[in-house]
From TrEMBL:
Organism: Candidatus Lumbricidiphila eiseniae
Protein name per the record: IS5/IS1182 family transposase
């Protein structure tokens, strides 16, 4: 499910294009809403920014 959400959010792929028998459009949107409510994407953004800072050395917090 996570990889499908990444495809939608990062690549801009439509929900309908990633839907299949194992995962409907409605289920994908429901999981997205649950993830947003739980704060998963906020935490993920913070973690990725910290890793990027360590790997690249660019402090993204000063740019955002």
């Amino acid at each position: 499910m996570f990889d499908r959400l990444v495809q939608v959010l990062v690549c801009g792929i439509a929900y309908v294009r990633i839907a299949d028998n194992g995962c409907s459009v409605i289920r994908t949107r429901t999981r997205r809403d649950e993830s947003v409510t739980a704060g998963i994407f906020t935490e993920l953004k913070q973690n990725l920014s910290e890793v990027y800072d360590k790997m690249i050395g660019l402090e993204l917090a000063t740019l955002i």
